[in-house]
Specification:
Blueprint lengths: L1 H11 L5 H5 L21 H14 L3 H14 L6 H14 L3 H11 L10 H14 L3 H17 L6 H19 L5 H9 L2 H17 L3 H14 L4 H10 L6 H9 L3
Helix pairs in contact: 1-7, 3-4, 4-5, 5-6, 6-7, 7-8, 7-9, 8-9, 9-11, 10-11, 11-12, 12-13, 13-14
């Protein structure tokens, strides 16, 4: 499980939180002030958020956490509270403390968009938290929430990238936990278009093959034969050779005839 958590952490940090991305900060630093507008004098909660950033940069996560806790307790109505919770969740995630990270990311998503800039990102990271704990249905639901959020608030910073990453990550989660017969309808709803759903379906078939789920892979290729008229030859070859004991060299030779 520890190896799985480390892999999840490495993959999930490929997307930066919106507020941090705006400040061109590296993943692992705390979120910048969400407003982004120049101010002559910072509010006390903004001062605390900046102070926590300083401590994190110094490598003192414990002190940063203490400051963020103070911000949340002293200014519960501040628009920076979701940023503080996001910062706490990121520190927990980076330490692979998924139990604590889950609680903190869930605090972030209690604050609705569009005011909460970290809403979609927090759901994205929750997808990884649930995935690492083998809660496949909840992971898929979390990634779906990211995609729904990006469709509703496309103007939000990072929405396009988060949608792309969530659509990508749905496939390996589905390959691990989903039923092949449900794949296309689910992908079609998420993708919003047939072409992208078919790409996801093809990726799913490959993942099924890679994990030796031969029967599932075969059924997906059979479905692709019906649905994807642009790659009939390739899908026919894959379907015929996705059987136990198939000759991969012969399959490659057949695929070359498709072009």
């Amino acid at each position: 499980m520890r190896a799985v958590l480390l892999l999840v952490c490495a993959c999930a940090t490929s997307v930066a939180p919106p507020a941090r991305e705006a400040a061109t900060a590296q993943t692992g630093s705390l979120p910048a002030v969400a407003s982004g507008a120049p101010v002559k004098q910072q509010s006390s909660d903004a001062v605390l958020l900046d102070a926590a950033q300083v401590e994190r940069d110094r490598g003192d996560d414990n002190k940063a956490r203490t400051i963020l806790d103070e911000l949340i307790k002293k200014s519960p109505d501040s628009h920076l509270v979701p940023d503080a919770w996001l910062a706490l969740a990121e520190m927990s995630f980076d330490r692979a403390d998924m139990t604590r990270a889950e609680k903190e990311y869930l605090e972030v998503v209690r604050f609705p968009p569009p005011g909460n800039l970290g809403y979609g990102y927090a759901w994205y990271k929750l997808g990884y938290v649930f995935w690492s704990d083998n809660r496949g249905d909840r992971a898929l639901e979390a990634f779906k929430r990211v995609i729904d959020w990006s469709a509703q608030y496309p103007q939000n910073q990072g929405a396009t990238k988060l949608r792309r990453e969530a659509l990508h990550d749905v496939v390996p989660v589905f390959a691990q936990f989903g039923a092949a017969a449900r794949a296309y309808p689910f992908f079609r709803v998420l993708a919003g278009e047939d072409a992208r759903a078919l790409v996801m379906l093809d990726e799913l078939a490959s993942r099924y093959r890679d994990t030796n789920k031969i029967a599932d892979a075969h059924s997906v290729y059979q479905e692709l034969l019906v649905r994807d008229q642009s790659h009939v030859c390739e899908n026919d070859v894959h379907a015929r050779f996705t059987v136990p004991g198939a000759n991969s060299a012969l399959e490659d030779a057949e695929l070359k005839k498709c072009h």
